[in-house]
Write a structure and sequence with these properties.
Blueprint: E1 11-14, H1 20-28, H2 37-46, E2 50-55, E3 58-68, E4 72-80, H3 89-107, E5 112-118, H4 122-130, E6 134-144, E7 154-156, E8 170-173, E9 176-179, H5 185-191, E10 192-196, E11 201-205, E12 212-214, H6 222-233, E13 239-244, H7 251-256, E14 260-261, E15 272-277
Parallel strand pairs: 4-5, 12-13
Antiparallel strand pairs: 1-2, 2-3, 3-4, 5-15, 6-13, 6-14, 6-15, 7-10, 8-9, 10-11, 11-12
């Protein structure tokens, strides 16, 4: 039997390398063990603003703040140990980190708070809705079974703001979403690769779970593109492609090439949502 949980005994503090073991344990109970946290953990433990919640000497939750270009403070990696969910810990972490964020905003009034989540993450949506979050962008993220064949794509380096042509406001680098402004280009160069398939232009981020973002229009011969996309994931591995909301009419063509929406019911929907949390609501 567990003794009665006391939220007031929770300590939210910056993480340290010794928290690694507890954080891995948290991720084991999340998304049936398919959590990306273990892959990014060592990086986050070395970065600023990776916070944890300690309870009775054990780390039971975490939340990361990351600086993105154009004065964005990005909220990510919120996790609560399965055994401790539904007790107000995520809410506590969000509120404490919001207080911290407000201190950063006092130094930089242009700072905005943003995050991205899956459209059916009810817990995450419920918490952030109560914080006044507003949906600012949505994407279609589709998956496809891997092919055996891969072809090496051409890496493009001489790009500029032209990569934003189908992404006028925001551009996804995997599940990080940056503002489509010139100031974002150095970050994009550092944290993403732009490449060409047979006809299409794409981008893939270097942080977190890989999803290719379509930059150009969808090529006419989609099947000819597939080996180039596959090379990003490796032969036979499941691939993932993100399209802007403006390409809704292309979904049937993607489905004809065996792309599908993930989730139990495979519903066609803008499943990757970007939100902004207004500071004045806090
Ligand atoms: C999402 C997650 C962090 C929530 O943690 P938690 O500690 O259980 O959440 P809390 O107990 O603080 O709940 C916060 C609020 O969300 C609401 N909420 C929680 N679960 C909910 C659900 N299934 N449906 C609707 N609202 C829900 C609660 O009502 C609560 O609001 P209230 O206290 O004002 O009523 C946790 O479930 C988790 O780790 N999930 C897996 C990882 C994940 O999805 N992370 C977010 C990625 S963006």
């Amino acid at each position: 039997m567990y003794s009665m949980f006391k939220l007031e005994d929770c300590l939210v503090r910056p993480s340290c390398p010794a928290d690694r073991k507890d954080l891995i344990e948290i991720s084991r109970g999340i998304w049936e063990g398919n959590d990306y946290l273990p892959k990014i953990l060592d990086r986050w433990l070395q970065e600023d603003w990776f916070f944890v919640c300690e309870y009775q000497g054990k780390v039971i939750a975490c939340l990361k703040l990351t600086t993105l270009p154009d004065n964005v403070l990005w909220f990510e990696g919120l996790r609560v140990h399965r055994r401790y969910q539904g007790k107000g810990i995520a809410k506590l972490m969000n509120h404490q980190l919001m207080r911290f964020a407000q201190q950063l905003k006092a130094q930089n009034p242009q700072l905005t708070y943003e995050f991205c989540t899956y459209y059916k993450n009810v817990e995450s949506l419920a918490i952030t809705r109560k914080m006044g979050s507003q949906e600012v962008e949505g994407y279609y993220n589709l998956e496809r079974r891997g092919l055996v064949k891969t072809l090496q794509p051409e890496i493009i380096t001489d790009y500029g703001t032209d990569i934003f042509c189908n992404h006028p406001q925001y551009l996804p680098l995997n599940w990080h979403v940056v503002h489509s402004v010139k100031n974002s280009l150095p970050y994009i160069r550092k944290h993403a690769t732009v490449f060409k398939g047979k006809a299409g232009l794409y981008l893939v981020g270097s942080i977190g779970e890989r999803c290719i973002t379509l930059l150009s229009d969808l090529p006419d011969d989609l099947n000819a593109e597939l080996p180039y996309l596959q090379s990003i994931f490796g032969s036979r591995k499941r691939m993932s492609l993100t399209l802007p909301a403006s390409m809704s009419r292309q979904i049937p063509r993607l489905e004809a090439s065996k792309f599908y929406f993930w989730g139990e019911d495979r519903e066609v929907a803008l499943n990757m949502l970007v939100f902004r949390i207004p500071a004045q609501q806090l």
